[in-house]
Amino acid sequence: MAAKLLEKIGLEWPIFQAPMAGTSTPAMAAAVSNAGALGAIGVAAESTEGAEKMIRATQALTNRAFNVNVFCHRRAIPDATVEAAWIARLKPEFTALGAEPPGGLREIYQTFRGNKPMTEILLATRPAIVSFHFGLPEKDQIKALKEAGIILFGSATSLAEARQLADAGIDAIVAQGYEAGGHRGAFDENAPDDRLGTFALTHLLARRIDVPVIAAGGIMDGAGIAAALKLGAVAAQLGTAFAGCPESAADQGYRAALASDAANHTMMTRAISGRPARCLANRFTKLAETIADSNVPSYPITYDLGKALHAAGKAKGEFGFGAQWAGQGAPLSRPMPAAELVRVLAAELAAA
To answer: 121 and 226 in one domain?
Structure first.
């Protein structure tokens, strides 16, 4: 199963770079793919035009397969009272930075679910792989993408989610463990979460689901990749390992935090975006420790204020309010060019 999927994609190594919306770039994806692994870009934060620009920019840099990731979250449920209280709660942080918070909050990211314009962009550009986070798109979208010859991946945080993906015809499942950085891919962010770790989830899905499984979360080196393969994964997906690469869009504060003691203290928080996501310990995660989930507005409305606060901080040289997504393997980060990192990972995997 592993050989068949890797051969279909045209890979030399079972190493996937995570899409990381806002952090991955066409340069990173192309460098990884050109080195024989699978590069990726995340277009969830982009407009339709921006997504097409990113995809075509990546295609201009590589003729090899890469992954384009979209978010399939449910539309936000606006609540003016909760949002006003949220703005008021964070206003002192803006004031301390000499800034004013926005007067209202917007739903800044569009979902791919039922999104015809974004579907048309994917059909027009035809990337080799499209992956889904936070659930599934509509059945007609899946059908159209598969008929176009596009391979489909979907993230799962549980066996139940993996079964939904398999039943929908998804070609491979990304088993996202609780230690993974960035947004938790749960279909329903408000449902009970068993918080399965990467290796427990990978082994479970490999035993119970007849679809290739890709391990994701906390994997930073060849030994981790080898362990995932031994548990039944066909490949491993690494995000934090690539965040420090020079091709990454991470700002200087993010890079500095990744190289600091903060890497030893990642936190799962809703306060930044409105959905659970694992971040390096910073001023935002410290603030979030005192906030109940019920007080946080719906995703991605919350993110509108989070981004505004980060921008206000950056203007004053304060990077502690950034969305510095990172997994629990962050202390093992090794900043180096993306292609060089692929070569190092491949050598470590061979040795393991």
So the answer is: yes
